[in-house]
Design brief:
Number of strands: 0
Largest sheet: none
CATH class of the largest domain: Mainly Alpha
Structural class: mainly alpha
Oligomer: single chain
Number of helices: 14
Strand content: under 5%
Helix content: over 70%
């Protein structure tokens, strides 16, 4: 397992190297002269200490734009490897600082939705498979299809209308109420948590449908296997057949999905966070993209690439834990 993990990590480093090269090429060939525009903006600010030509030279040197694609890429990669991603043009602070300021809000929101998604989707998927073609199965199928088909912005609008406009229980957006500064520390925590309710519900509803259908399909395949029929013929209690034999083998394909979800806890929910004005990493990346904040966009794309490779590695390692028949040589 150790040798396999090291080998996969080395492969991941190579893949990441070329992915980041593609990201740099996209930045290098972006039309519109964004570096010239930024240099002009910096030079025109009140109290600017550098001229347009000086800012242009600094920005070109920072991203290696004056050295060609290959040499420039290694210049930028060397700075990135040292944690020097530059300053965000949209947030006017270092990119890594904006990342630290926002990523934990996304992580909290992702954790809440991830836990409830597993607790809701997997039991319902198993229940639907156990009672195929029953009311439970049909009901679960309808619910899952509605959740899969529900657009995020439409669901968010319904929740805002019901809980904010009609009932007045929750604020329509944002992360703090008007009286946030007057609250105790525990009251401030509850106030922020209250603003996370509708975004969390949105993520849970739009996520459970796919996992529910996936669980049902895999559970049905396992229940129709020969060893399940043999266990039932030998008089093994149905509860033990489901919980001990069928469910464990159902987990094998599920780890692919769940392993990919774990790194997603840090990547943020761009649409949901933007709709509810949650200052997470998804909201920050959307704002940066609309304002052509190249330093932050490059960092965010590299961050997503790392999370994707990590998710694939986690999935492969979980196979050996869930299924003893899997041997990694």
């Amino acid at each position: 397992m150790f040798k396999y993990t090291v080998k996969r990590l080395l492969y991941s480093v190579i893949i990441l190297f070329f992915v980041m090269f593609i990201i740099y090429i996209l930045m290098y060939n972006m039309p519109g002269g964004y570096i010239e525009t930024k240099a002009r903006e910096l030079a025109s600010r009140p109290g600017a200490t550098k001229s347009y030509s000086e800012w242009l030279a600094d920005l070109n040197a920072q991203y290696g734009m004056d050295k060609g694609i290959v040499v420039g890429y290694f210049t930028w990669l060397g700075s990135a490897a040292r944690g020097q991603w530059g300053d965000s043009w949209a947030w006017t602070i270092p990119v890594t600082q904006e990342f630290r300021n926002t990523v934990w809000y996304s992580f909290a929101l992702g954790c809440i939705s991830f836990v409830f998604e597993i607790l809701i989707a997997i039991p319902l998927g198993i229940a639907a498979a156990k009672k195929q073609y029953s009311f439970t199965d049909y009901f679960t199928t309808v619910v899952s299809m509605v959740c899969i088909s529900m657009p995020t912005f439409f669901l968010a609008t319904i929740l805002k209308y019901v809980f904010s406009v009609k009932l007045g229980w929750l604020d329509i957006s944002g992360m703090q109420s008007r009286f946030y500064q007057e609250l105790t520390p525990f009251g401030q925590f509850l106030d922020v948590a209250k603003h996370f309710i509708m975004p969390a519900i949105t993520l849970i509803i739009i996520s459970i449908g796919g996992l529910m259908r996936y669980t049902r399909t895999n559970m049905l395949e396992v229940l129709n296997s020969d060893y399940i029929r043999t266990a039932r013929a030998k008089g093994v209690p149905e509860k033990e057949v489901i919980n001990k034999h069928a469910f464990r083998n159902t987990l094998i394909p599920l780890v692919t999905t769940l392993g990919g979800m774990l790194p997603g806890l840090f990547s943020g929910a761009l649409i949901t966070e933007t709709l509810f004005s949650i200052r997470g990493i998804g909201y920050a990346s959307y704002t940066s993209m609309t304002q052509a904040d190249i330093p932050f966009i490059m960092f965010y794309l590299a961050f997503l690439s790392i999370l994707t490779l990590l998710g694939n590695l986690i999935s492969d390692l979980l196979y050996g834990i869930v299924d003893p028949r899997v041997r990694l040589e």
